[in-house]
Each structure stands twice: as structure tokens, then as C-alpha cells.
């Protein structure tokens, strides 16, 4: 019997999705029980987190084996995996746009229930120049250095060589 090949990767049955799902459910139940002062110990949560880490490592080991050693990831599969990553990033962008759109919409046109003013009465607003500004600077600078390192890697330069040439 000859195996029919297609450009798509049909995954073989794997125990990892169900094991990871049950472990995540156990972690959630354990954390809720721990926060509710039930008789659950912190070492159980730590053990479950270690278990999920091991399961995730083994699952990705199998994915790596399917792609490299067994050769199941064809050009079409790799192209579709990259497309899915792009779709995920776009969905995150849309999520944050919706979040900030709702915030700015409420800020620009507050309801009559809020007294037609922003911020509402008796709301203490924090200073945006302190810690939030520092966190934003750290986030943006880390993204810039990662991008810089990535471009240096693509140009086959070492990072210290690009720093010296800067």
C-alpha cells in the first residue's frame, strides 16, 4: 500500500494536548483552592507548574522531531505556520486597539452618570511621569535592543562589532 502525500501536515495522535489541558485545569483549581484558604499546600502548585513545564518540553520535542527528522513539515506547512503567527499578532494588535479605543472613547465623551467629566468625581489619578514612564522606557528600549541584535545577526555581525561601529 502506497502512502499518499499531500502538502499539508496531518498530525498524528498525541497524548500531550489532553495531558497539558488536565494539568492546566489542576493548576487553576489548586490556585483557586490556595487563595480560598482551603487545605492545599504551595508545593502542590509548584509541582504542577514543574509538570506542565516538562509536558510542554516533551510536546515541543515531538513537534521538532516531526518537522526535522520525520520531514512532515513541507513548504506549505511552514508557510501556513508563519501565516498563523502573523494572524495571531494581528489579533493582538486588534485587541489592544479595541481596548484603547474604548478607554479614549470614555475619556473624550463621558456619560451623564459620570457627571459629564473625566476623571469622575472622587477618583484619584496617579502621576504618569513616575513609574509608568520608567516602565514604558524599559519596554521600548528592550524592544529596540532586541531588534538591533536581530538585524546584526542577520548581517552576520557580532553585537559588539555593531556597537563599536555605531
SS content category: mainly alpha
Could you say how many structural domains there are in total? 3
State the end-to-end distance: 62 Å
Low-pLDDT segments, ≥5 res:
none
The overall average pLDDT, rounded, is 83
**How many β-strand runs?**
0
The helix count comes to 5
Classify the helix fraction into a percent range: 55-70%
Question: Outline, from the CA principal axes?
Answer: extended
The SSE string, one letter per element, is: HHHHH
Radius of gyration: 25 Å
How would you portray this structure in words?
- With 166 residues, the protein is mainly alpha-helical.
- The chain folds into three domains: 11-73; 74-125; 126-166.
- It is 68% helix and 0% strand.
- The protein contains five helices and no strands.
- It has helices spanning 16-35, 42-69, 75-108, 131-154, 159-165.
- Helix 1 runs antiparallel to helix 2 (42-69).
- The radius of gyration is 25 Å and the shape is extended.
- The model has no long low-confidence stretch (mean pLDDT 83).
Compact summary:
The protein has helices at 16-35, 42-69, 75-108, 131-154, 159-165. It is mainly α and 166 residues long. The model has no long low-confidence stretch (mean pLDDT 83).
Map the helices and strands:
Elements: H1 16-35, H2 42-69, H3 75-108, H4 131-154, H5 159-165
Helix pairs in contact: 1-2
Keywords, separated by commas or semicolons:
0% strand, 166 residues, extended, mainly alpha
Amino acid at each position: 500500500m502506497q502512502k499518499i502525500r499531500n502538502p499539508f501536515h496531518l498530525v498524528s495522535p498525541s497524548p500531550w494536548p489532553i495531558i497539558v489541558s488536565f494539568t492546566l485545569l489542576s493548576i487553576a483549581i489548586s490556585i483557586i483552592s490556595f487563595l480560598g484558604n482551603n487545605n492545599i499546600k504551595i508545593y502542590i502548585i509548584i509541582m504542577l507548574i514543574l509538570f506542565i513545564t516538562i509536558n510542554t518540553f516533551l510536546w515541543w520535542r515531538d513537534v521538532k522531531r516531526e518537522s526535522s527528522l520525520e520531514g512532515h513539515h513541507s513548504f506549505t506547512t511552514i508557510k501556513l505556520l508563519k501565516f498563523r503567527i502573523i494572524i495571531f499578532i494581528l489579533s493582538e494588535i486588534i485587541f489592544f486597539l479595541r481596548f484603547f479605543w474604548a478607554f479614549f472613547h470614555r475619556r473624550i465623551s463621558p456619560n451623564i452618570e459620570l457627571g459629564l467629566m473625566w476623571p469622575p468625581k472622587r477618583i484619584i489619578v496617579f502621576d504618569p511621569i513616575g513609574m509608568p514612564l520608567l516602565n514604558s522606557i524599559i519596554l521600548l528600549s528592550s524592544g529596540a535592543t532586541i531588534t538591533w541584535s536581530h538585524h546584526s545577526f542577520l548581517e552576520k555581525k557580532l553585537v559588539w562589532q555593531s556597537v563599536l561601529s555605531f
